[in-house]
Amino acid sequence: MIVRIGVIGAGVIGRLRIATVQAHPGTTLAAVFDPASGAAEAAAGGAPTATTLDAFFAHEMDAVIISSPVQHHDEAALRAFALGLHVFVEKPMANTTAGCRAMTAAAVAAGRHLAVGFNLRYFPSFRFMRQVVDDGTIGEVDHVRLFGGHDGLANFRAEWQYRAPESGGGATMDIGIHLADLGRYYLGDITEVYGQATERVWQVPGSEDNAIAVLRNPAGVAASYHATWNEWAGYRVFAEVYGTLGMVRGSYGPMRNLLITHERPGAARRVQRRLYPEVMLREKLRSWEVTTQLAFAEELADFVARLGGGDGGVLADGHDGLRSVEVSEAIRESARTREAVHLPPLGRMTG
For residue 206, what is the DSSP state? Predict the structure, then answer.
C-alpha cells in the first residue's frame, strides 16, 4: 500500500522532508501547504499545493508531516487527528507542554500514530552509542553527559525561532531539545530536573542563552546537561555514557565516536575511535543538509513501518516529544524556584 503524505511547511526543513517523501518507494506526496504559494510550488514538484489549511486538508491523504513554525504545530496536528490522519511533527513538538499534551491526547482518542522528528537518533555516531549501551559493552550505566551549543542568534533564519513566546524558550527549546531527547534515549526516561537558566549574553526576554541542569531517571541515574548559545567553537553536540566497564562518546560537528573499555575499574584500557570521513567529505562538498536528509529518510522509513504495524525502530513518539518539552520548562521552573522539578514516569505511547 502506498502511503499518501501531505507536508505542512515548505521552508528549509520542509523541503528536505518533501524530498524524502518523493524518494521513498512506499509513499507519495499528496499535497504541500505553505502560506507563501511560491515556496509551496517550488518544493512540490508538481504535487498539489495550498496556502490555507482548509485547502490543504481537502486533499486525500493518510498522514501529514508538520514542518511549520513551532507555534503552529499543535493546531495543525489537532486538525489532522480530527480527520483521522497520522502525524509526524518536527521537534520541538509544540512550544508549550499544554500543546504537547493536547496532541498526545488527540492521537490516542483518534487511534492514530504520532511521531516526532528527533533526527540525531539516526546519526551514525549516536546510533553506535546506543548499540554499545544496549550490548552491555560498558557495563551498568553510571551517568551521562550531554552538551549542545552554537555561537548565537546569527544561526537562526527567522526571529520567531529564538523569541518567546513563539519559540517556547531559548537554548533549551533549540539545541537543548535534542539533549533532552538523547537523555531519555540513553536513560530510558527523565523524571527529575534541577537546573539553572540565564539570559545574560543575548538578553532576549524569555529565551535563555545558557541552561545547565542535572537530569535523573526513575532509578536515580543522572545526566549532566548544558545547552548554550555562547559556544565559541560553533555548532557541536555530544553525548557521553559512562558505565562500570568503560565509556562511549558520540558527537556531531564533526561526527565521531570514542569507546574506552576495561575488564574492571583500574585495569588496562582499550581505546577505539570511529571517524566518519564520508560524512565530513559530503558536508564539505555540499552541506549539512546531506547528513540531515539521510537521517530524515531513515525516520520516514520507520514512520511508514509503524503505520504498517511494525515497531518503527528508534523513531521518537509523542511521549518522547512531550517529555523533551517538559524538561525545557522544568529547567526554567527549577531556575526560578531553586528546587528540583519532579515529572511522572512516561513510557512509550501505545498503539
Answer: T
Nearest of 286, 241, 270, 1 to residue 250 by alpha carbon: 241
C-beta separation of 316 from 84 below 8 A: no
What is the edge-to-edge ordering of all strands in the sheet holding 341-342?
270-275, 256-261, 246-252, 236-243, 141-149, 222-228, 210-216, 192-198, 341-342
Grid cell, residue 79, equals: 486538525
Q: Quick one: average pLDDT of 77-89?
A: 98
323 DSSP assignment: H
Alpha-carbon separation of residue 18 from 28, 40, 122, 140, 290 (angstroms): 10, 10, 18, 41, 14
The answer to whether the CB of 105 falls within 8 A of the CB of 82 is: no
How crowded is residue 200: how many other Cβ atoms within 10 Å of its Cβ? 9
Within 8 A by CB and 6+ apart from 37, the residues are 49, 51
Mean pLDDT of 115-143: 97
Please list the residues that pair with 49 across neighbouring strands. 32
User: Are 145 and 138 within 8 A, CB to CB?
Assistant: no
Structural element, H or E, at residue 63: strand 63-66
Return d(Cα 184, Cα 118) in angstroms, integer.
12
Q: Are 64 and 303 in contact (CB under 8 A)?
A: no
Contact assessment for residue 26 and residue 42, using Cβ atoms and an 8 Å cutoff: no
| Nearest-angstrom CA–CA distance, 338 and 340 | 7
Integer-rounded Cα radius of gyration of the chain: 20
Among residues 154, 155, 165, 176, which one has the least CA distance to residue 69?
165
pLDDT of residue 21: 98
Judge whether 128 and 275 are in contact, CB under 8 Å: no
Contact 210, 197 (CB under 8 A): yes
d(CA 33, CA 190): 35
Q: In the prediction, which pLDDT does 43 show?
A: 94
Whether 345 shows a pLDDT value over 60: the answer reads: yes
C-alpha cell of 292?
Answer: 540531515
The closest of 278, 249, 243, 279 to 264, measured between CA atoms, is 243
Q: What pLDDT is recorded for position 351?
A: 54
Helix axes 97-110 and 73-82, enclosed angle (nearest 10):
10
Q: Give the whole-angstrom CA distance, residue 173 versus residue 149.
A: 12
